[in-house]
Amino acid sequence: MQHQNLLIDDADGVRTLTIHRPERRNAMDSTLAAALLNALREADMAPIVGAVLLTATGSVFCAGADLGEFKGERADPDAESRRSDLFLELQLAFEQIRVPVVCALTGAAIGAGASIAIAADLTVMGEGARLAYPEIVHGMVPSLVIGHLQKRIGRKQAFDLLATGDPVYAPQALALGLASRVLPDADVLEGARTLARSLASRDRRTMRETKELFVTTLPLSLPDALRAGREAGRMRQARAAQAALQAQT
User: 6-200, what's its fold?
Assistant: First the structure.
């Protein structure tokens, strides 16, 4: 389903989701967040989709949460809670869906926008792009991004970024593991699209099971992760044997 601030296109097994709110520097309000959340879930359910490409129009990937919404929330004590729940669901969705997501990041990704960019399974970042978590500079607690960042780069590096609000440019983002690849800005979209097409060309079930196992084993100890992998392999072999048996009858 199309949305005025989220453009959706299918080609070569890749569903491209383009954040399109340039008049607000692609700031994420609740309506856009809900549209993106629904689009990710729909892509996961669509047999024709082998990968998702997330990108944005304009020179800013996403300026963060739309602060204009905060004014309206003062008159509605439940609005902030609903918005927080929605943004939490959106961040979790990137790991919950089994279709891989590639993000093409150029320009700035700020606050919630940075969290969305690095939540993708693969993030292709332009040489001139930057991530930033400036909430503390504006007297705000970065409550919805702390856990996300800690899990990805560790306690000290995460606290450094959150406590200072300093931007992270592409070379540092790559070194920290927040970006998968860095390309010249002009090549980012096509590079990310090529990567997404490559993922989409793989066997769909195998790719989805690989991502699911990858996410499942992330919080586990090495022995438990290896055991989980062994069990997943056994289940896959059992399904293959069952399918072969059914084909003979």
Answer: 2-enoyl-CoA Hydratase; Chain A, domain 1 (3.90.226)
